[in-house]
Specification:
Elements: H1 8-24, H2 32-53, H3 65-87, H4 93-100, H5 103-114, H6 121-138, H7 145-163, H8 169-196, H9 207-235, H10 237-241, H11 246-260, H12 265-282
């Protein structure tokens, strides 16, 4: 019964991430950096309020932790959004989605290495199956060389969002990592907006665009970040990485419900393949060594003056 309980938050977080594809279409013509700055600033305030309500202390980063957290903000937040927005100008959204759906392979290899272990064959095999299913779901689309480059950057940034958090999760926990990454993710695009855009253009956004930005701030940033890092802290980056295969499934389903049409046979086949891959990779391992990623070590209890590893 408890085997999949630690995975549920991450799965829900990936559903929210998948929903962002449809929602983000409303922001195509909005000022990119200024809108992202507003989104992440609002999300940071929400996370701080949630942490205080839950009485979770947020520790101040020290030493190299600033580099890891800044890396999460720069890659997983700022560059990822730039890659997606710029990428869809050169490629169909399916191309970007397929690239991001390949994240389980990277996390299956690099995640355990960052955690001081060797990648397991079972997780790697399951990751390949999940990616294959995600490709079937999203299909392939038209693109050019620039579109391929943006898709590759989106893939790298999505992997970095998880991998760069591994060294700081033990001390800061999901709450601390989320808060610091998001406020840093607000400062970075704000600076770029001042240099490259007219921030006042944000005031001209319509009701639909503000609603989209609000949804992205609350559900896809504040809530999804906490859910995702909670699962990474509980089961490890390699095993949690398989859940990224849920995002393209959610994107396809939400796209159909919003008027995109009923998915065809390849999509349903891809759904079956992804479910099979998730079931194989996420099942409880036999206790025979280190077949499965162990969770990220948790820091001391709040009573010791440190943030817990899970909310």
């Amino acid at each position: 019964m408890n085997t999949f309980a630690p995975l549920a938050p991450g799965a829900l977080g990936m559903v929210l991430v998948g929903s962002s594809v449809t929602v983000s279409r409303s922001l195509v013509h909005a000022p990119l950096f200024a809108t992202q700055a507003v989104r992440y600033a609002a999300a940071a305030l929400l996370l701080i309020a949630f942490a205080r309500a839950a009485r979770v202390p947020i520790l101040r980063p020290r030493g190299r932790e600033w580099l890891w957290l800044a890396g999460i903000a720069a890659t997983g937040l700022l560059l990822f959004n730039v890659a997606v927005v710029r990428g869809v100008a050169h490629a169909e959204p399916a191309v970007i989605a397929v690239a991001v759906a390949s994240v389980p392979v990277l996390l299956g290899v690099l995640g355990p290495l960052l955690e001081g272990r060797r990648p397991t064959r079972r997780i790697l095999a399951a990751a390949v199956v999940v990616v294959a299913g995600a490709v079937l779901v999203e299909g392939t689309g038209r693109t050019d060389a620039a579109g391929v480059a943006w898709a590759a950057l989106a893939l790298a940034c999505e992997a970095a969002f998880t991998l760069l958090a591994v060294p700081v999760l033990p001390r800061h926990g999901p709450w601390g990592v989320s808060v610091h990454a998001v406020w840093l993710g607000a400062v970075m695009p704000a600076g770029l907006a001042l240099l490259t855009e007219r921030p006042a253009d944000v005031l001209a956004l319509g009701a639909a665009q503000w609603a989209a930005a609000g949804y992205l701030a609350v559900m896809v940033t504040a809530v999804a970040f906490l859910l995702w890092y909670r699962t990474v802290a509980a089961v490890g980056a390699g095993r949690a990485g398989l859940l990224t295969g849920v995002a393209p499934l959610a994107a396809a389903a939400i796209g159909a419900l919003s008027g995109g049409g009923v998915p065809g046979p390849p999509v349903w086949l891809g759904l079956v393949v992804v479910v099979a891959g998730l079931a194989a990779g996420l099942r409880a391992p036999r206790r025979s060594g280190n077949d499965d990623p162990s969770p990220v070590r948790k820091g001391p209890r709040p009573g010791k003056g440190r943030a817990p590893a899970s909310p």
